[in-house]
C-alpha cells in the first residue's frame, strides 16, 4: 500500500525558512519521480517542483525558482522541500505526490499517489 506522509509545516514570518518532508512507503522509492504541489485558499492546486528517481533532474515553478530546493534521500525514502525567503503568497497546503510520466516542466506535471498535505502559513 502506497503511503506518503508530509510533515514539517507551520507558521513562519516573511523572509523566513522552512523545510517540509514526505516519508514514503509501499513502493520502490527510487524508481519514482516525486513532486511537491500546493493549494492556497480559494485557488486551484498547482505544481511547485519535481525530482526524478536518482535526484539528478529537477524542475521548479517560476514563482519559487531560486528560493525553494527539492531533494530526496533514497536511503531513507524521504522527499524534502527546503523553502527560503518565504512570502505571504507561499501560504498553502503542501502535498507530496508521485509524478506520472516523470519529472518535467511543472506545467505538465500530473500527480499519481498523494499525501494528506501539511499546512504552511507565512504571516507576520
Topology:
Blueprint: E1 3-7, E2 10-12, E3 18-25, E4 34-39, E5 46-51, E6 58-60, E7 68-73, E8 78-83, E9 92-100, E10 110-114, E11 118-122
Parallel strand pairs: 2-11
Antiparallel strand pairs: 1-3, 3-8, 4-5, 4-9, 5-6, 7-8, 9-10, 9-11
Describe the structure.
The chain has 124 residues and is mainly β. The chain contains no helices and eleven strands. Strands 2, 4, 5, 6, 9, 10 and 11 form a seven-stranded mixed sheet that branches. Strand 5 and strand 6 (58-60) form a beta hairpin. The model has no long low-confidence stretch (mean pLDDT 97).
Q: Report the helical percentage.
A: under 10%
Rg is 13 Å
Poorly predicted runs are: none
Average pLDDT, to the nearest integer? 97
Spatial separation of the terminal alpha carbons: 40 Å
Q: How many strand elements?
A: 11
Order of helices and strands: EEEEEEEEEEE
Strand content: over 45%
Inertia-based shape: globular
Decide which structural class fits the backbone.
Answer: mainly beta
The tally of helices reads 0
- Main sheet record: 7 strands, mixed
Main attributes?
four-stranded antiparallel sheet; mainly beta; seven-stranded mixed sheet; 124 residues; 0% helix
Short description:
The chain is mainly β and 124 residues long.
Amino acid at each position: 500500500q502506497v503511503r506518503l506522509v508530509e510533515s514539517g509545516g507551520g507558521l513562519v514570518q516573511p523572509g523566513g525558512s522552512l523545510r517540509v518532508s514526505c516519508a514514503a512507503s509501499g513502493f520502490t522509492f527510487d524508481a519514482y519521480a516525486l513532486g511537491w504541489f500546493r493549494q492556497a485558499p480559494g485557488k486551484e492546486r498547482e505544481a511547485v517542483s519535481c525530482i526524478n528517481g536518482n535526484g539528478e533532474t529537477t524542475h521548479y515553478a517560476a514563482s519559487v525558482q531560486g528560493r525553494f530546493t527539492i531533494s530526496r534521500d533514497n536511503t531513507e525514502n524521504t522527499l524534502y522541500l527546503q523553502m527560503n525567503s518565504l512570502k505571504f503568497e507561499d501560504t498553502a497546503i503542501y502535498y507530496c505526490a508521485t509524478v506520472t510520466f516523470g519529472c518535467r516542466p511543472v506545467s505538465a506535471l500530473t500527480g499519481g499517489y498523494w499525501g494528506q498535505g501539511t499546512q504552511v502559513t507565512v504571516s507576520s
